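hey can u check if this looks right to u? its 166 residues, i copy pasted from the old doc so theres a chance i mangled smth
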Amino acid sequence: MDGKKIENDFWTVTSLFSALTQADQPVAALHAVNQALWACEDAVRSRALPDAEVVALKRRIDALNLERHAWVATIDRAADAQFPVHLPADDPRACVGSESIGQMLDRVSVVTLKRAAMLVAGDAARGRAMDDRLALLARCVDERLTALRRGRATRQAFDEGKTYSA
C-alpha cells in the first residue's frame, strides 16, 4: 500500500485500512462484526459443545451475517454518494469488477483476521501469504477507487442473494 491519495482523505487505501480501527467509521463496525463472527464460528466447531449451544451459536452467526451485510451496504451507499458517476457494464470504457467497495473491504477485514490468527499460531509463512493477499486486495481497492474517481467504474450493487432469518 503506497498511501496514494485518491481524492477525499477517507477514500484512500491507507485510510480505508486504518478505518478498521476507528470506532466511528462503518469499516470499523464491519470489522467488529467480522471479529464476532470469527469467534462464533471458531466456537461452534467444538465437538464438545452440546447441540443446543450449537443451535444458539448458529442463530448468532446468522444475526451477525445480517449485520455484516448491512454494513457492507452502508459502505457501498457512502461510495455511491462520494462517486455518483458510473458507466453501464456494456460500455467498452467501463472498468468492471465483480465486487463492490464494501465487499472488497469485507474481504480485507477477513484476511486481516486470518493474518492475525496465523501469527498467533506461530505460522509466519501463512502470515506472509496473508500479507501478500492484503497487498493484492489493496491494489484491487485502489484500482476500483481510481475508476470510481474517474467516473469509469460500473455500479456494483451489493446483493448477497442469501437470506438469514434472525
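The helical segments are 13-18, 26-44, 51-82, 101-120, 124-149.
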